[in-house]
Amino acid sequence: MTTLDLFGGPAEGDRDWMGPQAVILRGRALSCVDELLDALDAVVAQAPFRRMVTPGGLTIAVASTNCGALGWTSDRRGYRYGGLDPAAGRPWPAMPACFARLARQAAADAGFPDFEPDACLINQYLPGTRLSLHQDKNERDFSAPIVSVSLGMTAIFLFGGLERGDRAFKASLYHGDVAVWGGDDRLRYHGVMALADAPHERLGSQRINLTFRKAG
Ligand code: SIN
Ligand code: FE2
């Protein structure tokens, strides 16, 4: 396993490449983090975090909600994107302008101009929560990248290959980092190791991940 950390961690503005078309933009969200967190509070007030169930009937450890025209959901009938929050029977909250702007600009920085996300999955990790290796493949069009914003506690991200069994390397994702993967790297397996409880000064014992996709 390769670790991208340097002593003392990366500096804002650093780019750590995980593949030819996969990069971590260090601290890319920091300049707008106050706006992001206010907007996040407003979204979560309308569409609270909830733990979804897999088609196999297991409760997913990560708690989720969505904003944007489409939201990702899982239940006994499968994984899918839909326009309605099933818990409320109404549309997902609109995507805040600062979310869309950051996603668009980070994608462009990473070599994907013209990214227009229509979905933002918001995941909440508590200490001990992990996300097993998976591909993001419920989207209709794989030509658009995935843009993933980390907030709060540090996570160890696993970034593997195109096959589940391929070696994955580890990269720490810090508050404010934005990871972008697309093109030939779009379908690489990825996951998050069980979160250690090292409370974040602003967000406490949680990590929030915003994942932007072009789903429809
Ligand atoms: C995801 O794969 O959907 C989330 C990745 C992360 O939390 O960093
Ligand atoms: Fe994912």
Helix and strand pattern: EEHEEEEEHEEEEEEEE
**Class inferred from helices and paired strands:** mainly beta
> Treating each run of at least 4 consecutive H or I residues as one helix, how many helices?
2
What amount of the residues lies in strands? 25-35%
The biggest sheet amounts to: 7 strands, antiparallel
Kindly, what is the distance between the CA atoms of the first and last residues, rounded to a whole number of angstroms?
35 Å
Give me a quick take on this structure:
By secondary structure, the protein is mainly beta. The chain has helices spanning 33-46, 97-109, and strands at 15-19, 22-25, 63-67, 71-75, 78-82, 84-85, 90-91, 119-125, 131-134, 146-152, 155-159, 169-173, 178-181, 190-192, 207-213. The chain is built from 2 helices and 15 strands.
